[in-house]
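Collaborator request, handled under Task 6.
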Amino acid sequence: MRHYIIALILALTVTACGNDEPLTTVSRTVLVYIAGNNSLGYTYDERDIAEMETAVKAGALNGGRLLVYHADVTGNPVLAEITEDGYTPLMEYKDGLSSVSVGAMKQAFSDMRAVAPADDYGLVLWSHASGWIDYGRSPETKLNRSWGIDGKYQMTIPDLGRALEGEYFSFIYFDCCFMGNIESLYEIRHATPYVVASPAETPLDGMPYDLNVECFFKKTPDLVGAAENTFSTYDNLSGRSRSCTMSVYDMAYIEEVASATRAVMLDNAVAAEGFVQQQYGTAGFKGLFYDLTHYMYSLSTDGNALAAYEAAMDKFVIYEAHTPQMALSLPAIDLNNCYGVSCYIVEASDGRLTLTGNYSDLQWWKDVVAPVYGL
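Structure tokens returned to the collaborator:
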């Protein structure tokens, strides 16, 4: 791995010819935050960095700057920049903070703004992920199953929300599994106007950076183009490899979706008997990710409430594409009723609720689901 110990003085000026000259502010800086101290960090991080280098050498930056926070399996995390000359490490983090801690992420954001000031910023979050799921810390493993893996540690979605609090990115692209869930999206709703994510698993190779870097640096980021590039990459394959769902969300309308969802559930919170919900997860994720819109269709007896919900979703999900099946894990799932955003379904029977993990920690539960049950 290209780890060089290069010290960088984090200041807003640099010395040139004996004079202090301000760093140039570019139109956009994009940070790819790679939490790769896991099974992906042996190969897939290197492949994606190579794809970024290919894109930049082809002129994809459009006057912007591309930074990579890279935590892998071999040593301390590094903040690097990718230019036409290749991958250049800027600084090494020796503070011992896990890359999936709020402190490490906040520090990377601060360093990004100091060394690569820009008119706006974009963020790619790269790692394993399991959406909103959080079963709590175990003394043996200290494992939280949500976003990012760094050895035995993961970041809960509320912690991701705290890491992004006070930050602003013109977009966030989740290059990882299961982050197109309404609970996670709602938790980070103030951090960015647009999110690109998949409600299901994503293939190990992730997005095609050689195609998508250019999309990120267009004057107006071409997020639909990036999502389409990713989807088409896998839709053009065959067999089990032809498995992909991609969505782009306009976060300006997520509050409207929340209100409309709550209205539908207040009318009726029990699905029609025999209704088979569209799932996104298999194996250990079965029963945790369902299609939100398909779920609403199983509940509504109020045409006006459902129409308001559909209108909100039409504005919120501005791009959605899916292959006929999701077969990365078996058994394969037919995606006949995929509308682009997933949710967890709280089970209620005999007046009692069944919540998985720490679901009640999520703001979606507090604002949308709990009021339906008078909580």
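The cover message to the collaborator said: "The chain is about 30% helix and 25% strand. The mean pLDDT is 90. Please let us know whether this matches your experimental observations."
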